[in-house]
Design goal:
The complex is a heterodimer of chains A (424) and B (982).
Chain A (H helix, E strand, L loop, with lengths): L2 H20 L7 H11 L10 H13 L6 H20 L15 H19 L11 H17 L8 H15 L3 H18 L5 H14 L3 H14 L4 H13 L3 H10 L9 H17 L4 H10 L5 H10 L3 H11 L12 H6 L1 H17 L3 H20 L3 H14 L4 H9 L5
Chain B lengths: L5 E9 L5 E9 L1 E4 L2 H8 L13 E5 L2 E6 L1 H10 L6 E5 L3 H16 L3 E3 L1 H5 L5 E3 L6 H9 L2 H19 L3 H10 L16 H8 L8 E8 L9 E8 L6 E6 L5 E3 L6 H18 L19 H17 L3 E3 L3 H7 L3 E6 L17 E2 L1 E7 L2 E4 H10 L3 E4 L2 E4 L2 H13 L6 E2 H10 L4 H4 L14 E4 L2 H11 L19 H16 L3 E3 L7 H16 L8 E5 L1 H14 L5 E4 L7 H8 L4 E5 H6 L1 H5 L2 E2 L2 E3 L11 H8 L1 E2 L2 E4 L8 H11 L7 H14 L3 H11 L3 E2 L6 H6 L3 E8 L3 H18 L4 H20 L2 H4 L1 H9 L6 H6 L2 H15 L4 E5 L2 H15 L3 E4 L5 H12 L11 E5 H4 L10 E4 L6 H8 L11 E8 L3 H11 L5 H6 L2 H4 L3 H8 L8
Parallel strand pairs in B: 1-6, 9-13, 14-21, 22-29, 22-30, 23-25, 23-27, 24-25, 26-28, 27-29, 31-36, 32-34, 32-35, 33-34, 35-36
Antiparallel strand pairs in B: 1-2, 2-3, 2-5, 4-5, 7-8, 9-10, 10-11, 11-12, 14-16, 15-20, 16-17, 18-19
Helix pairs in contact in B: 2-3, 2-6, 17-18, 18-19, 24-25, 25-26, 28-29, 33-34
The chains are: A mainly alpha (424), B alpha/beta (982).
Chain lengths: 424, 982
């Protein structure tokens, strides 16, 4: 058996037939392109889906000499990759009809590679204005992607991104009319009727939120996002997208509303995600100082995960009282902060420090060990200074006398107090 | 999603005492109880009253930690609502009710809408409760939800809160007691049988709603009624002048006429009035007719009782009482007893001695209010033995206790005998305060009824006493013609004052500063005395007692200033005694003696009544118990004068002794004086007593200081005084011995040997005048040895009169804070002085002589001139050898210069003096030159003064000229004059 020869020969024949078809490629629809790709790679059908497959498939497809206008070529090549993505990620026909579909590592990395390339495609502009006749092709592409995207399983998310990029990078700059987004929104919504429960809800909702957003129907966008958040782990970048757009468009008021309404989406997220969210707020407050209170409110709502950011913001915006309220509620230790933190307090609101220090002293003494007493004395010295600053020396005197006499049996404490020159 | 870090459900229960027990749970999967400390620090984080929770205690009950919030903090805490925002608080159970009610209750408190609890009062406690009427419906309905024990706890918490907030301090609690005494009246009669509302009205917490109030009125006898009567009247609250008399029957019904609107109120209250009157008035007062229980008339005695006792009790029980208008003023009027000095007294005094013991005619006057009563009128009033007396148309109160006191006071001083001038003077000087003296039993005498004895002076005495106090009013007196001195104006004043005091028979104390010339003032006075008594046959001489060390000085000064005065020195072993003393007195004007001699010869001297006794350095009798003091005070005299330079007014025992000498008994007994003044002034620093004493003392003391501007005008910048001093017997003996030895040797010596012998004798004699120790050498070693420890300074001082005198003068000036220089030629003397002064003064004494190094010398000078050293380090005395310290030093800190021994050359002395008297000196400089009487020192001094035999250039050169004198001249120069060989 000379199988390699056979294959080569088959390939040769095939190529000839293909070339014939390829010559008509300019007149083909999207689905015809895909059929062409299919035939072109038919000899690889049984191959294991990996990067080798990818290489072979691409080589095979590129062997066809197609002559296309620039826009058409851009789309044609993009669809090659869409085709490959489908090939790589599609459940084999013979696979058991289970919802679980496992993609092997090599297949997955090949798919990732394809996705990367697709991303690069979308980085380029699509000069649709030069070739308005290509518009149906673009719309077909959109429909293709929408279809793929909405038919994906919940665990898969290969086509949302291309869909999103197509809309954002190519369509939105080219199609400024609202009618397009409205139409797309209707198509999305009607897809639910068609697909029923099989519809992939994540991209479906996210896509709708985008459309609402473009149509400035923020409230609808938020409700889509809220629905989404209720059932899926939403990625921060999906949300940050909206913020970035608004920031770019300098729509501060709207951004503030978005940040307020979508704060919930950041609940329970880590510092690195929250800090992005917080930075958006900062940008808003920089432009609209009145939004300061709302920022702090929303950050407070994200507690306790936002605690670090929240505390920082309270200090940065001189919210001494709230900061202290937070520390007291959390029961934090004053000595864990570096002393300069308290300098503005001493200057602006020394009385706020009193409960903080007094309570910490109480806790330290209750430890009933030398380290605790040392810490207590350190804090008592600060208290002494505070009382003096507030010209309430008599209150201080009676407090320290009372404290010393109440704890007269803690000899080590007495010793530390004397060492600290707090008592005679 | 919320800003809260935690959600805490709070549960509270209240104890019967109002304390809150708080615990909390948090929902975390399952409900769990919170750690007590955790909850406490969060719940009370902003609660300042509990110091942010750190002062609250935790209690363990059945494994749960409870926070104990003290009752007084419960309501304000829950009302305040200051809580951490980052924690969600849920009010569980009763906490919710407390949180709802607390602000309302705080409002009750702020608006004072709270009342004392009658129930608690009945149990003998004071508790507060909110006024139900002040709460709104919602609050009331919330309250109703709660169970009884919760309500009890809440009300206890409220009570504690009210107490803490409004009556928490001593002063506010006292205010409450004062404003509402009945709240604290246990088993008070006025509180009997009341309901809550009536009780609140009765204690004064709530106003009575009736438009009138019942008032009890006392009516005084008038034309229609001859007796005192009581009646009940209703007084209109809006118009206090409008009153409606009513009658109260024995069954509690009221009759009379009142505005129609009042009837209902009268009807409901009249029974209560009767009950309360029964309780408040003494038995028997309510009786009379059964239709008018107050109808029985009162006697004067009964009226007095009602005025003074019953009315007070009624007022306490909350009744208003109307008393006659005069009562208030009458009860404030206290009788006063006055001694009115008869108009003739004292006016005829003229030249005769008046004296503190002389009696002043007077009449008693008792005044009550504006009314003056003579003794007879007073007696008549007292005889009536009534408390309430109508006198000259006015009702007058007579308090028997007070009357008895007046009688006693009047009895104590027989008006036929009269008051002594001393009493009158003291009464006048001290104003009303003198009453204390009469009423010796101070403790017994009730503060309110203490009798005030006053004195009313006649014109003459008024004038006289004014004169005593006013220097400008002292009669001027011419200086005696025979006085050989020019008196400065203040000295003339002092002399005139002494004479004036003599005319009044008042002892006097001349206490001018050292150097102002007390001696010359006394001499002028003695001379004046001599002039006035020249024609009298039986004139006795005056006696001057002074320290031994100044005897010579006195003699010298008298002979210098008043040669006309015949002085007799009563001193030494050869003094006269018995008959010969008597005989000698006839020729003498002045007897001069020492304290010691006066003590020895007490029996002799006591037999005379001296024209004057003068004590120089009168502080010598400061210890009243000493024999010396007693002896001196036992002498009788027509006038007594004390001279002293020390400020005695600050040393009370000294003051008393001197005054007791001058004016016996004027300041009372020593023990009495200690009780009355010394203790109060020295221990308690009683300013009033100090002022009293000053008032008593001032008229008898004339004290002028050098610093007085008026005196300064009169003083020269540099005042040179010679201080004459006699030799002690030891000194005399040695002196004579030395002179005799010299004279013996003169016969055999010639030339240079003779000169040498003379010079050596000269030195010996001069040293002898300083101190015999310098000659006997025995002591130099002893002094050196003793310098470290205590030495027997007493003996050392007694051996030299110069040393004794110097010490006295230095002590005096150091007391005034002044500093001095002492110059001496002899190193031994300098050392001796240093030792003695250091020990006696207890302060550093500097000594600069030829062997002092330059640096030590500079240090001494710097030290002496400083003024910022602590008292025990600051030297005030600087001894200098005249050669080492005579030139170039600047010691202006001193303003006294002593020349302990004489230098032949006045220029050298002056140069030494100029150490202090030079640029930079701000005060007058006193120069004291010590001269031993009867010795060559005196002789040389005379020569220097007279410049008879010596020309300036002779004496300025050296002592060489003496060696050129003939033996006869030497003998004349050296020999001790015999009158001093005591």
């Amino acid at each position: 058996m000379d199988r390699p020869n056979e294959i080569a020969e088959q390939k040769q024949n095939n190529l000839a037939a293909l070339q014939e078809q390829a010559d008509r490629v300019n007149a083909m629809s999207i689905s015809e392109w895909h059929a062409l790709f299919e035939r072109c790679t038919v000899f690889l059908k049984e191959s294991t889906r990996n990067s080798q497959y990818l290489q072979d498939a691409l080589t095979a497809m590129n062997e066809m000499n197609v002559t296309l206008t620039p826009v058409r070529r851009q789309l044609y090549e993009l669809h090659m990759y869409f085709f490959l993505l489908v090939q790589l990620t599609q459940k084999p026909q013979d696979a058991p009809s289970s919802n679980m579909h496992f993609i092997g590592f090599h297949t997955h990395s090949a798919a990732a590679e394809v996705k990367r390339v697709i991303e690069v495609f979308f980085e380029k502009e699509l000069p649709l204005a030069d070739e308005p006749e290509c518009r149906p092709l673009v719309m077909e592409t959109l429909a293709y992607l929408r279809g793929k995207m909405l038919n994906e399983r919940d665990t898969e998310r290969y086509f949302w991104d291309p869909y999103d990029r197509l809309c954002t990078n190519w369509l939105k700059p080219n199609l400024s009319e609202e009618s397009f987004f409205l139409e797309e929104l209707q198509l999305l919504q009607s897809a639910e009727i068609e697909l029923g429960s099989r519809i992939s809800r994540f991209p479906w909702l996210l896509a709708q939120s985008r459309m609402h957003f473009y149509l400035s129907r923020d409230r609808d966008a938020w409700s889509c996002l809220a629905d989404l958040n209720a059932s899926f782990p939403i990625s921060d970048s999906d949300v940050l997208y909206f913020y970035d757009r608004l920031q770019n468009d300098r729509q501060w008021q709207r951004l503030a509303e978005w940040l307020t309404e979508t704060a919930l989406l950041f609940e329970g997220r880590g510092y690195h995600q929250l800090i992005k969210y917080a930075r958006c707020w900062e940008a808003v407050v920089l432009q609209m100082p009145t939004a300061e209170a709302r920022m702090l409110e929303t950050l407070a709502l994200l507690l306790p995960h936002s605690s670090r950011i929240y505390e920082e913001k309270l200090l940065a915006y001189n919210k001494w009282q709230q900061w202290m309220d937070y520390q007291l509620s959390a029961g934090s230790e004053p000595l864990q902060f570096r002393a300069p933190v308290f300098v503005p307090f001493e200057k602006h609101a020394p009385e706020l420090l009193l409960p903080y220090y007094h309570q910490a002293v109480e806790r330290s003494i209750l430890l009933k060990n030398r380290d605790g007493y040392k810490a207590a004395v350190k804090l008592l010295k600060r208290l002494a200074r505070l009382y003096k600053k507030m010209k309430r020396e008599t209150s201080w005197e009676s407090f320290i006398t009372e404290l010393a006499s109440r704890n007269s049996r803690l000899r080590a404490l007495q010793e530390e107090l004397r060492k600290g020159k707090l008592i005679g | 999603m919320s800003k809260h870090l935690n959600t805490i459900t709070l549960l509270t229960s209240l104890t019967a005492y109002g304390d809150a027990l708080i615990y909390g749970t948090q929902e975390q999967g399952e409900e769990r109880f919170l750690n007590g400390l955790y909850l406490k620090q969060r719940l009370f984080a902003l609660h300042e009253a509990s110091l942010y929770g750190t002062e609250l205690e935790l209690q363990q009950v059945q494994g749960i930690e409870l926070i104990l919030l003290p009752a007084e903090q419960v309501i304000p805490f829950f009302a305040e609502g200051k809580r951490l925002e980052h924690i969600e608080w849920i009010w569980g159970g009763l906490t919710k009710i407390v949180v709802q009610l607390a602000p309302k209750l705080v409002a009750c408190l702020e608006e004072r809408l709270y009342i004392p609890s009658y129930r608690a009062f009945q149990e003998g406690k004071l508790q507060w409760t909110w006024d139900e009427a002040a709460l709104d419906d919602q609050t009331r309905s919330v309250l109703e939800q709660a169970d009884e024990s919760f309500k009890e706890g809440l009300s206890a918490a409220f009570s504690a809160f009210v107490n803490h907030r409004h009556y928490g301090t001593e002063s506010t609690a006292a205010d409450l007691r004062r404003e509402y005494p009945l709240l604290f009246a246990k088993n008070h009669p006025a509180m009997a049988g009341l309901d809550q509302q009536a009780w609140l009205v009765a204690v004064g917490w709530k106003a009575d709603t009736a438009p009138f109030r019942p008032v009890l009125q006392l009516l005084e006898p008038d034309d229609s009624e001859s007796a005192w009567r009581l009646r009940l009247v209703l007084q209109d609250k809006r118009d206090q002048a409008s009153i409606a008399p009513i009658r109260l029957s024995s069954n509690g019904e009221a009759f009379g006429s009142w505005p129609a609107g009042w009837s209902a109120h009268v009807g409901s209250r009249s029974k209560g009035w009767l009950d309360r009157l029964r309780v408040c008035l003494p038995e028997g007062r309510i009786s009379g007719h059964h239709e008018d229980i107050l109808s029985r008339p009162l006697s004067d005695e009964g009226a007095w009782h009602f005025l003074s006792a019953d009315s007070k009790q009624l007022l306490e029980a909350g009744w208003q009482v109307l008393l006659p208008a005069w009562w208030e003023t009458a009860s404030r009027k206290k009788p006063r007893l006055r001694a009115k000095v008869s108009s003739e007294t004292g006016s005829g005094a003229g030249s005769s001695l008046f004296g503190l013991d002389s009696l002043v005619d007077f009449d008693w006057r008792v005044s009550i209010g504006d009314t003056d009563l003579s003794e007879a009128e007073f007696d008549e009033l007292v005889a009536r033995n009534e408390r309430l007396v109508r006198f000259r148309g006015q009702w007058t109160l007579l308090d028997p206790a007070l009357l008895a006191q007046i009688r006693k006071a009047m009895g104590g001083i027989d008006s036929s005998q009269g008051l002594s001038f001393q009493d009158v003077l003291q009464l006048h000087l001290l104003g009303g305060g003198a009453g204390e003296e009469i009423a010796e039993d101070e403790q017994e005498a009730d503060q309110e009824t203490r009798l005030r004895l006053e004195v009313e002076l006649n014109e003459h005495l008024t004038q006289l006493i004014r004169q005593l106090g006013q220097q400008a009013e002292w009669p001027k007196l011419d200086v005696p013609a025979k006085l050989q001195a020019e008196l400065r104006s203040y000295q003339r004043d002092g002399y005139a004052w002494l004479a004036f005091m003599r005319r009044l028979g008042l002892g006097a104390c001349l206490a001018d500063d050292m150097g102002l010339g007390k001696t010359v003032q006394l001499i002028a006075y003695l001379l004046h005395l001599q002039e006035r008594t020249a024609h009298q046959v039986e004139a006795t001489p005056s006696l001057i007692i002074c320290p031994t060390s100044v005897l010579g000085n006195w003699q010298k000064e008298i002979s210098r200033f008043a040669p006309a005065l015949q002085v007799m020195l009563h001193y030494g072993s050869k003094r006269l005694g018995g008959e010969s003393f008597h005989a000698a007195l006839k020729d003498a004007d002045v007897i001069l003696t020492s304290y010691a001699t006066a003590t020895l010869d007490q029996e002799l001297l006591r037999t005379f009544t001296w024209a004057t006794i003068s004590l120089d350095e009168a502080q010598n009798i400061k210890n009243a118990q000493t024999k010396q003091s007693a002896a001196v005070r036992s002498f009788s005299a027509r006038h007594r004068i004390a001279l002293t330079g020390t400020p005695i007014e600050n040393r009370l025992s000294e003051l008393w002794s001197i005054y007791d000498f001058m004016n016996p008994n004027y300041l009372g007994s020593a023990a009495g004086f200690t009780n009355r003044f010394a203790n109060a002034i020295e221990k308690d620093r009683d300013a009033a007593r100090t002022a009293d004493l000053q008032k008593l003392v001032k008229p008898f003391m004339l004290r002028r200081k050098k610093k007085d501007p008026a005196i300064q005008l009169d003083l020269p910048d540099k005042n040179e005084m010679k201080t004459y001093i006699h030799l002690t017997s030891e000194q005399s003996a040695l002196y004579t011995q030395t002179v005799n030895q010299l004279l013996t040797r003169m016969q055999s010596l010639e030339g240079i040997e003779r000169k040498g012998a003379i010079l050596s004798a000269l030195t010996q004699l001069k040293q002898l005048c300083d101190h015999p120790i310098l000659l006997t050498k025995e002591a130099v070693a002893e002094t050196a040895a003793a310098a470290e420890g205590e030495m027997d300074t007493e003996t050392l001082i007694n051996r030299s009169a110069k040393l004794e005198r110097l010490l006295a003068m230095v002590k005096e000036l150091r007391d005034e804070g002044e500093r001095c220089l002492i110059f001496t030629q002899y190193v031994g003397m300098g050392q001796l002085l240093q030792c003695v002064l250091r020990q006696e003064l207890q302060e550093p004494v500097l000594y600069l002589n030829g062997s002092t190094s330059k640096s030590a010398r500079d240090r001494m000078i710097e030290q002496f001139q400083r003024s910022d050293l602590p008292p025990d380090e600051q030297p005030g005395v600087f001894i200098l050898s005249i050669k080492a310290g005579g030139v170039g030093l600047n010691l202006t800190a001193a303003n006294h210069v002593f020349h302990f021994d004489r230098w032949w050359n006045p220029a050298v002395e002056n140069q030494a003096t100029d150490r202090a008297y030079r640029m930079g000196q701000t005060r007058d400089v006193q120069v004291h030159k010590f001269i031993s009487l009867a010795t060559l020192e005196e002789r040389i001094d005379e020569m220097l003064d007279n410049k008879q035999q010596l020309s300036d250039n002779v004496i300025t050169s050296s002592e060489g000229w003496i060696t050129e004198l003939s033996t006869e001249a030497l003998k004349d120069l050296f020999t001790l004059r015999q009158d001093w060989s005591g």
